[in-house]
């Protein structure tokens, strides 16, 4: 489920369109004297489709408040994120993102390939604005860990210009 949101303090003149995806809603139950009491946790991914993406995790007694909390956290953290290095509608090179027991391998793909990814990883890549990519996940398939591993992998990307500047050589 994707939604677009406008964001801007200057009355809408310089709006950034944010796209958000609800990746997972978990239901948790605790047993009390009168039965079971349920609470909900929502995992949401927010991105501007031009290289910035982050996640939010919110918990509440009902589903809508948990999603709103997750959205608020994701939007706050998105402002502090640096842009992902992209080459057109794909990534510049192969990279492996790791978090906990989850590993996500991201491989650039040619035009027309699409986003070949499983749940969790797909939402992060779509929110980031990547249109052609191949992925493979290894290890844990916990959605929260997959989202974190994918974001770590995207943050590890470097363009040719970045690498040349770091090495002190000219292209």
TrEMBL record:
Residues forming the S5 DRBM domain are 18-81
Concerning Pfam families, the annotation shows: Ribosomal_S5, Ribosomal_S5_C
Task: State the UniProt keywords alphabetically.
Answer: Ribonucleoprotein, Ribosomal protein, RNA-binding, rRNA-binding
The protein's GO terms of the molecular function aspect are:
rRNA binding; structural constituent of ribosome
Superkingdom, according to UniProt?
Bacteria
Keyword Cell inner membrane among UniProt keywords? no
Q: Name one GO biological process term.
A: translation
Example GO CC term: the record gives:
small ribosomal subunit
InterPro entries this protein is in? Answer: Ribosomal_Su5_D2-typ_SF (IPR020568), Ribosomal_uS5 (IPR000851), Ribosomal_uS5_bac-type (IPR005712), Ribosomal_uS5_C (IPR005324), Ribosomal_uS5_N (IPR013810), Ribsml_uS5_D2-typ_fold_subgr (IPR014721)
| Primary role | With S4 and S12 plays an important role in translational accuracy.
**What's this protein's family per the entry?**
Belongs to the universal ribosomal protein uS5 family.
Annotated domain remarks = The N-terminal domain interacts with the head of the 30S subunit; the C-terminal domain interacts with the body and contacts protein S4. The interaction surface between S4 and S5 is involved in control of translational fidelity.
What does the record note on quaternary structure? Answer: Part of the 30S ribosomal subunit. Contacts proteins S4 and S8.
Q: What is this protein called?
A: Small ribosomal subunit protein uS5
Q: What organism is listed for this UniProt entry? A: Telmatocola sphagniphila
Q: What is the lineage of its organism?
A: Bacteria, Pseudomonadati, Planctomycetota, Planctomycetia, Gemmatales
Tell me what gene encodes this. rpsE
């Amino acid at each position: 489920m994707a939604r677009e949101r406008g964001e801007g303090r200057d009355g809408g003149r310089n709006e950034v369109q944010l796209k958000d995806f609800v990746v997972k809603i978990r239901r948790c139950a605790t047993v009390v004297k009168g039965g079971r009491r349920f609470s909900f946790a929502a995992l949401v991914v927010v991105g501007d489709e031009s290289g910035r993406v982050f996640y939010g995790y919110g918990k509440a007694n009902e589903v809508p408040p948990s999603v709103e909390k997750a959205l608020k956290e994701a939007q706050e953290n998105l402002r502090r994120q640096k842009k992902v290095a992209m080459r057109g509608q794909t990534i510049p090179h192969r990279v492996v993102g790791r978090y906990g027991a989850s590993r996500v391998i991201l491989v650039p793909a040619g035009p027309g390939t699409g986003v070949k990814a499983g749940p969790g990883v797909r939402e992060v890549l779509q929110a980031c604005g990547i249109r052609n990519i191949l992925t493979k996940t290894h290890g844990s398939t916990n959605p929260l860990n997959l989202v974190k591993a994918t974001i770590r992998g995207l943050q590890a990307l470097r363009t040719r210009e970045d690498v040349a500047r770091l090495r002190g050589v000219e292209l």
